[in-house]
Amino acid sequence: MRNPLFDASVSPAAVPEADARGPWAYLWWLVRVRPWPLVLAAVLGTVWMVPLALVPLIIGRAIDEAGQGSGHAGLYLWSLLALALGLVQALAGAGLIQAAIGAEAHAVSTTHRVLVRHVVRLGATLRGKARSGDVAASASADVESIGNAFEVIGRTIGAVIAAVLVAVALTVTSPVLGLAVLIGVPAAVLGIGPLLRPLQERDEAQREQMGIATSQAGDIVAGLRILRGIGGEAGFAERFRRTSQQVRRAGESAGRMEAWLQAAGVLLPGLVTVGIVWLGARLALDGTISAGELVAFYGASAFLTLPVSTATEAAETLSLAKVAAGRVCTLLRLTPQADRPTDPEPLPAGTLGLVHTDAGITAGAGLLTVVTAPADRTGDLADLLTRPGAHPGPTAVRLGGVPLDRTDPDELRVRVLRSGPSDTLFSGAVREELTAGRDRPRQDLDRALFAADAGDVVDALPGGLEARLDEGGRTLSGGQRQRLILARALLAAPDVLVLEDPTSSVDAHTEARIVDRVAALRAGRTTVVFSDSPLWRSVADHRLTLPPDPSPTRTPTRTSPTEDADPGAPDRPAGVPS
Prior knowledge:
Elements: H1 23-33, H2 36-67, H3 73-122, H4 125-129, H5 132-173, H6 175-190, H7 193-222, H8 224-230, H9 233-285, H10 291-303, H11 305-332, E1 354-356, E2 361-363, E3 368-372, H12 375-386, E4 397-399, E5 402-403, H13 409-415, E6 416-419, E7 428-429, H14 430-435, H15 442-451, H16 455-460, E8 468-469, H17 478-492, E9 496-500, H18 508-521, E10 526-530, H19 534-539, E11 542-545, E12 557-558, H20 561-565, E13 572-573
Parallel strand pairs: 3-10, 3-11, 6-9, 9-10
Antiparallel strand pairs: 1-2, 1-4, 4-5, 7-8, 11-12, 12-13
């Protein structure tokens, strides 16, 4: 089964650029992108709601016909008309559900794809500009809130049209009652307005706390093994409990305001109904309206509670959608740190050397270089070697003699690849995950799996390469995930491959096999491995050791195999051939 993420028809690239100037601009952009589900929902919502408004009026006419003693023909006619309206309403209701769900699905899927596309554009920049919890909350809660707003719009438009129709009909019958409806119903809706602003503020506060809690939960899960090793589980659990209680209190605050809003949605239209019924009864006693018209007025006033409650629901849903769209726009307005240079320099053909003069890293073209550095520096160093703009200021990294910030980003993505512990496995078939949807010869795939010692991982899955992985490869062990991620990086076959602790989660025997096989597979291509493993150092063409506290007076060292064996041999400055 093909992974739909790689289907061009639903690719994020197929979505137009979003209007992220503000929440209302973004919601209106969603309408413009695909208006027909929303238009159809509005039409069907009107066809579904109008019969509800007309039935009380028809029943009132039927009662008057029966009271006049003019025979059963008129009564049968009005009864058949009521039946026909019921059938129309049933059919329109069935279609309304489909159209409303279609409009909701459009808003949800389009927002998901817009977010995915922008997150990919930001790349590693996202880590420093937004919390992971904000991204996760936008992809789940915010997207759901936007979809809910699109689901309710069709019913709301139908409710407004039906309410206007009822007001007109009542005005024709009795101008006094019609005026009461025209004043009372809008007043009931407007009476809900003062509650919307506090609800929106409390929803924003809850959404902020949810983002913080999600970020903390992700950090704890990612570092659970380390936390257990240092005995920090209890401390972090207590910290998360405090954060979750803040989320609970924010949710309770928003829930109380939502309850007041729901109560107002019942009370205010109820008062309008009571007032109209009281006024209609007085008019009936005075002989101004007939008994059938009184029944019609009562039924119509009872019906008006539905449009008002629907408008209340729409106001609440749109308030939540505005908050959610604002959060989405905040993410969409983030910009990558590294812009495309105005006049990029092309990289030379063939193998490329990689040099970082400030850090003292020199990776010769076509060679395997192993860098041993403090654990807290490896991530930053890997960023510096592969990502322009990883730190402010002019770059000290040269790739094939070309400054890294002068290269074309598209060419850089093709020829340079970094793979490390932050990489993840997406859901879908194993083959699609390894090849990213590209057609790759089976022998290349087999070679990459062999070099990463991941053949047994694939063979153990039901269906082999066609087996489906859960998001993040949750059903795999840490070592299995790491080997599949390494196989994916090797299959990409970039000119320069930077690996960050590629065998930290496997045992020594497996690591020995991987080290030898990767060295053989990458022979003749530039490979940089950040690792303190002696197995990687044993196969390295060059080895560098970086000090824990780099300063201008201290230079990184590189040793040869004989120097490794002789602890008393002096270090050589980086860049001096061994």
